[in-house]
Target: ATP-dependent Clp protease proteolytic subunit
Amino acid sequence: MKPMDPAALAAAETVEHEITLEADTGSLTALAPTAGPAEIELFGVVGIDFTARDVRRALTAVAGRDLVVRVNSIGGLVTEGFAIFNAIARHEGRKVIAIEGQACSSAAFIAMAGDEIVMPQASLMMIHNASGGAHGNTETMESVLAVLRKIDGIQADVFAARTGQDRARVAELLAAETYFTAEEAVSLGFADRIENREAVQAAALVNLEDIMARAGGQSVAFRTAPTAHITAQGPATPPAPPAPATPPTGAAPPTPPAPAAPPASQPTAVATIQDLRAMVTQARGAVSADWALDLAAEGVTVAEARSRLIDAMAARQPQRPEGGIQITQDERDTFRGALEDALMYRMGGGQPTERARPLLGRSAMELARASIEAAGGKPAKFGHDTLRLAGAAMNLSSDFRAEAGMHTTSDFPVVLGNAARRTLLGAYAQVPQNWRQISQPENFEDFRKKQFLKLSGTPQLERIGEHGEFKYGTLSEGAEGFGIDTWGKIFAFTRQLLINDDLGALARAMRERGSSAGRTISARVWALVNNGHIGTGANKVIMSDGKAVFHADHKNLAASGTDITDAAMEAAYLAFAQQVDENGEPIDITPRTLVVGPTRAATARKFLGTGPNASGVPNIYQGDLQLIVEPRITTNAWFLFADPPLRDGLAVGFLNGREEPRLEEKAGWNVEGVEFKVALDFDAGWLDYRVAYRNPGN
Model:
């Protein structure tokens, strides 16, 4: 590792001590075999899947030993990255950083703490400036900008010290959000070597042949004494011997060694043909063999060659689009998803997921702390004042957020609402919805009474002669219709419930309200069935002709109540067959569903399940009717309904077609907590009496 600038290291430690998170996942362990280096895996999001406290604890367990740190991370919280960088840099023992897949953002910064950085051919590194957000006045925004500029400056100092690059060049790479392949990272000093180097050297030799062919007579001189040829133009600093490499633990047995490559020159040394050859290979088409020959003729140093390589690569980098996706948004989404899964698990409504693993086992208050930290705040500032900490997590006051130093609002209420919503809808889906077998859902665009269209005139198609004329059929508003209303309740999840770790109260409330929403629809539909018969009272359902739904004039009411018998069922089927439309034409519908209450359930099952009688006559109703036993029908009456898609009859309307309850959350005013409002926009109504038949029973 190149000497680290003490000022840069001190600056990183200052920021770490000022604003780093105080959290741990409890999931990071160090592998410490009896022989060879110890090993730590930093996989996932910095500050969420692993924290500085995790790393410090793991390093303490292997103090003084050589270490391999395997990294595969998109990055994460920058100050956590500073703290992890410092912890690894202070570790006594040789440190090898192995980039297993990617080291992006703060993970790339962490990698700079290694004495040696190793990247496989199939790996990436990315560096960029810090990102963040805030909500507040100009002073707040300027304060956040000042912090971001400090972080960017620290990154530039550390990357420049580690790579030997000019600080201004590093700042340009950070601002451009630059991705490096393994070859590019090694070429620019962000990594020290590539795993499976033999394959890379073979590719480099192919490019060298191209250089030699273009160099003509110089090729022999390059192959026999490249250093003497170049140093004739100026003194060169002898190359330092390379540090011994420690292969990562568990690596495959090495292949027979190839001839050792010449040691890399120092940045101040004149670039050898080996240096330039490697740059041509690693640039992947950004520069050519002619570029290498031109620089060799000029006698440029390694640092100058790298600087020109950066310019050439930057010219080929695509411009970032305005408003492009920021890594910080991905991190925030990752945290939200993990927090939501953890809350669902705590509320008894889900299985533990991999992304929620670091948060499982934490109390509600610990999850609230994590949400404050994810918003850039320091929950430690509240000390033991759990009420104010809970208020900050619930966004109850901007004063709480300011006191915590949060850059933006907490995600806790939103994520809590998402978990509550999943619980609500899960309970709603479990409620039996047998009303769907006798009614048809309808879409309403507003709350006004809706008159449903009907076809006027003769509905049948008419014969058209050779020169005949087609006649128009018209649609007009039917006489029947209904409007919808809003049904709902409010539940408050208070700070006290959060502090008491009573997520179960919220889960119970959402399950009860989800079930209640399903039962409310069923109760409304079956009330229309029960109250659609002849009787008195405000609940009696009257059609537009002034008569009850089930009425003798509608030919859908038995003359007298009977049990479910062959004769009674035959009379019901005959009533369906005799129904006609407004023009006196048969509507051709038959019963599909038999509906009874609990008092007639056994009779109905026996009737539908009976086989042929003693004379061998089959039960013609067996398999022809489906049975609904509805507890809201408390009399001995029984009903027959046609299949809903055949003709509009009993309808259930939903606003904008949304058939499930909606959940809204906001910071409470009358209570100190988050208020959850469960609402359902719907109602039901009769559109046609011809689709149903009622027998009062006996």
Q: What stands out?
A: Residues 238 and 269 are 8 Å apart (CA to CA).
